[in-house]
Specification:
Layout (H helix, E strand, L loop, with lengths): L2 H8 L39 E3 L4 E3 L5 E10 L2 E9 L12 E8 L6 E2 L13 H4 L3 E9 L5 E8 L4 E8 L6 E5 L18 E2 L1 E4 L2 E4 L6 E5 L4 E6 L5 E3 L9 E3 L10 E4 L4 E3 L2 E9 L14 E9 L2 E8 L22 E9 L2 E8 L3 E7 L7
Antiparallel strand pairs: 1-2, 3-4, 4-5, 5-6, 7-8, 8-9, 9-10, 11-14, 12-13, 14-15, 15-16, 15-17, 18-20, 19-20, 20-21, 21-22, 23-24, 24-25
Length: 373
């Protein structure tokens, strides 16, 4: 392990074994409201077709599901990348082919879609890692040079791998392959990994990737949230302890809404209170919150020390977002999901884009001017 990584770990002390908890309303985002007249904002479109370059066939690429969105603000509009599934394969979750579609909105609520996906399995260097499952679950952040950095999951129905792609226009993407391919001499290339939330800072309506102490930081993975660093936002190194075990910075808690699993959500944000991470939480039917259904996905918030991104300061005790509407419990995941992945500041409000029941895209809005603490 690099000396710098050991230095970060030395700051943790007992935090690794005694994580903080407790609600902190002063640091949390929200409350978020779900506008009823527009939700869900994206639903499957059986009429959309696309010629798949992998097998040279016409597919209805967003016929089955549209969900799990990422978002950025560009040129005064909200751009959303969303996961779209065709109806190939059987009806089990994860057995369709996923591609990423692009939708834009002038008000953050009503979207126009591109007719074809912008990121998809192709006859390229990543084909072996992306076919037949496809490309899934994007997160987006902007670099200081206005390049858009995308984290997404490559799914070949064998190993899920967190991967990186970049773009200057949100339409044409360069795939860089697995995020951890070159770390540790290649020992993490086949690490089961997903859900990369890169640390950023708000600049107007943009969220810009931000380095701390000379490194970029990324929270990632499930059922525990791990952490990685990078010099260039493309090649990443997971942090491990002195025995080689990957460092867990957030884990499930018995008795809480996040008792089954935790999974990184939208890009983490550097705020006046610390590093804010919105995360997705699964509830255990055996040792979870008895007021919630088993395996329901809700949203939580965690706060980390800006001087040490591994150190947990505070954590929400209850979900800030959970399934309450029919469209959040109707679809291919009927236990219910409000799966958060896209969060942007726009026109003085915060727009949170999330997947509902692995089938549609919803939006929730927080207006800080209406909720002064």
């Amino acid at each position: 392990m690099a000396v710098a990584a050991l230095a970060w770990l030395s700051l943790l002390g007992s935090v690794l074994v005694r994580p903080a908890c407790g609600q902190g309303p002063g640091w949390m985002f929200g409350p978020f409201e779900k506008p009823p007249r527009v939700n869900p904002v994206l639903t499957p479109n059986p009429a959309a077709t696309f010629r798949s370059p992998v097998n040279d066939s016409i597919v209805r690429w967003e016929e089955y599901a549209t969900f799990n969105p990422a978002a950025v603000v560009r040129d005064g509009k909200v751009y959303v990348l969303y996961r779209a599934e065709d109806a190939s394969g059987d009806m089990q979750i994860g057995h369709h082919t996923s591609r990423l579609g692009l939708a834009t909105s002038a008000d953050g609520l009503r979207f126009a879609r591109a007719s074809a996906p912008v990121l998809y399995p192709d006859r390229d260097a990543q084909a072996q890692l992306e076919w037949p499952g496809g490309v899934e679950d994007p997160r987006l952040i902007e670099a200081r040079d206005s390049t858009y950095v995308l984290t997404y999951t490559q799914w070949n129905r064998d190993i899920p791998r967190l991967a990186i792609a970049t773009s200057r226009d949100m339409v044409h993407w360069i795939k860089h392959g697995p995020a951890f391919a070159r770390a540790g001499g290649g020992k993490y290339r086949d690490l089961e990994s997903k859900s990369g939330a890169i640390l950023g800072q708000v600049a107007g309506d943009r969220v810009i990737a931000t380095a701390l102490r000379g490194k970029y930081w990324m929270y990632f993975n499930v059922p525990d949230i791990l952490i990685a660093t990078s010099d260039d936002l493309v090649d990443w190194t997971p942090l491990a302890d002195s025995s080689g075990r990957l460092v867990k910075v957030l884990s499930p808690r018995p008795g809480y809404f996040d008792s089954w699993l935790v999974e990184a959500g939208p890009p983490a944000l550097l705020t006046p209170h610390g590093i804010l991470l919105l995360y997705n939480a699964g509830n255990s039917g055996e040792y979870g919150d008895p007021t919630l259904p088993a395996r329901v996905y809700t949203g939580g918030q965690a706060l980390f020390d800006p001087g040490n991104p591994l150190k947990l300061i505070a954590r929400s005790d209850t979900p800030f977002l959970k399934p309450t509407e029919d469209y959040e419990r109707t679809g291919q995941y009927q236990e219910g999901t409000t799966f958060v992945e896209g969060l942007v500041p726009f026109h003085g409000r915060w727009y949170l884009y999330y997947g509902t029941a692995d089938s549609r895209v919803g939006v929730a809005v927080w207006d800080p001017s209406r909720h002064v603490r």
